[in-house]
Design a protein that fits this description.
The structure is a homodimer. Chain A is mainly alpha-helical. The first copy, chain A, has helices spanning about 10-15, 30-40, 55-60, 65-75, 95-120, 125-140, 145-160, 165-185, 190-210, 210-240, and strands spanning about 80, 90. In chain A, strands 1-2 form a two-stranded antiparallel ribbon. The interface of A and B includes residues 97, 98, 102, 104 and 109 of A. The first copy, chain A, binds a DNA duplex (30 and 30 nucleotides) through helix 4.
DNA sequence: CGAAAAATTCTTGCATACAAGAATTCACGC
DNA sequence: GCGTGAATTCTTGTATGCAAGAATTTTTCG
């Protein structure tokens, strides 16, 4: 227990208490808690099937149960968690079937985004998306996976935003959560970097030309290729349990 | 303070005061609270822009703030409410722009559903959907709007289910909430009943034939027609403020 | 009388207390 | 020794308490 040699027992005790963070503004806990927890799930730090103990999460995140519970509810709605009545929520399983289901939906949604975006492109928008493309290229040459990952997502997101349809963006964001989770769970990416970059170039060209049909088709195909590869990788991984 | 003739619109709608219900099972409050509140919003009992006072809702729904707050969070995520920091949440505005945005997304999603469903139809499925179609027809002949409404939704839902893609169904349900709200807000339906029924017949025929491309196109068109009409009706309504 | 500021009240955001159900442990009997 | 059941503990579901921020009213000064 309390060792007599402990020179500052009070200080030690206080250090353990997660400080209220004096400069904290009210109303920010829900959002930040959701973000933290979501990251844990999407990146796989919380494995699929893992039980979420609310009290434990409170300690880890330094907040009370209220924001934690709200975050759990939110993420359950997003499909990242599964709620069991009167029992701990668990991280949603990430079965291959769901990713296969994602393929059709996401490719269709992004296809629509490409179609709408191509019909509305401006020089400014092309420049922005082009910049994101080259940022991705840069991360590729430097072998920086996280940066590549982020730039890739920004590229797609910008196109969806460019479509100018808020409902489309909303749906895309919901789907992107699941896609990200699937991506993190496989180490496919290094193999698909080059191909993905080429496809992005083609997409960018179609957008620049304002060719809606082509942009739609290429985006749809691009998404389909990416997710299909992912499914294949996961099936492969499942076949040989321990990655050698 | 509380005048005896309290004129809150909620009070009228929720005359049935849900008492603590002794035989209540634990864990049912969140779901039921969400459902009740969602109904109030979708049907328009809570008008767009209306402020939600948590304490008042607690009294009306007969529960404490916890489930009410959780329900508010849930419905905010569904896009039915808008959260303002440190202020009352409000019912999301139902602007025509959003419904126009819905047109592209929902028609695309249902088009995909039709395509997938047509590729998987069984005799049983055709029979089920046909039954729903005729149920709708029945409600039409009887001039029963609510029943018609419900059968219409069931018809569409069954097709999406038949597509066999859980992600697609999930997205469709989220979108359907907004579509329903838009429908309730206009009294277009009596005018479109006949047309909608004819279109359903065409859809059913395409599904029966297993023609994926045709089913997709017809469903997509059908949704587009319905929502476009809705937008027109709302614009009309906005032009002449008071419906004569 | 009008407007700005101070005080009061109201409402939300977060924390915590309490109760019901589930899980675990322990005891007892066979 | 082991299975079954009672008792304890643990965990979630719900209610409530308290503080920070917003709204409203009152007060004060021009």
């Amino acid at each position: 227990m309390d060792s007599p040699a402990d020179t500052t027992p009070l200080a030690a005790f206080l250090a353990q208490v997660p400080q209220p963070e004096p400069g904290r503004r009210k109303g920010a806990l829900h959002g930040s808690t959701v973000a933290k927890l979501r990251n844990l799930i999407v990146t796989g730090a919380l494995a699929p099937g893992a039980k979420l103990n609310e009290r434990e999460l409170c300690l880890q995140l330094g907040v009370s149960r209220t924001p934690v519970r709200e975050a759990i509810k939110t993420l359950t709605q997003d499909g990242l968690l599964r709620a069991l009545p009167n029992k701990s929520s668990i991280v949603a399983e990430l079965d291959v079937g769901e990713i296969e289901a994602l393929i059709d939906v996401v490719s269709t949604i992004e296809g629509l985004a490409g179609e709408l975006a191509a019909a509305r492109v401006s020089d400014e928008a092309v420049a922005e998306i082009g910049m994101l493309h080259y940022r991705m290229l840069l991360h590729h040459t430097r072998d920086e996976l996280p940066g590549y990952f982020e730039a890739n997502k920004a590229f797609h997101r910008r196109i969806v935003e460019l479509a100018g349809n808020p409902v489309l963006l909303w749906v895309w964001e919901l789907l992107a959560l699941r896609v990200d989770r699937a991506r993190y769970s496989s180490n496919l990416w290094p193999k698909r970097w080059k191909m993905a970059i080429q496809e992005h170039e083609q997409i960018l060209a179609a957008l620049t030309a304002g060719d809606a049909a082509l942009a739609s088709q290429r985006l749809s195909e691009h998404v389909r290729n990416g997710l299909s590869g992912l499914v294949a990788a996961l099936k492969d991984k499942a076949a040989k349990p321990d990655g050698a």
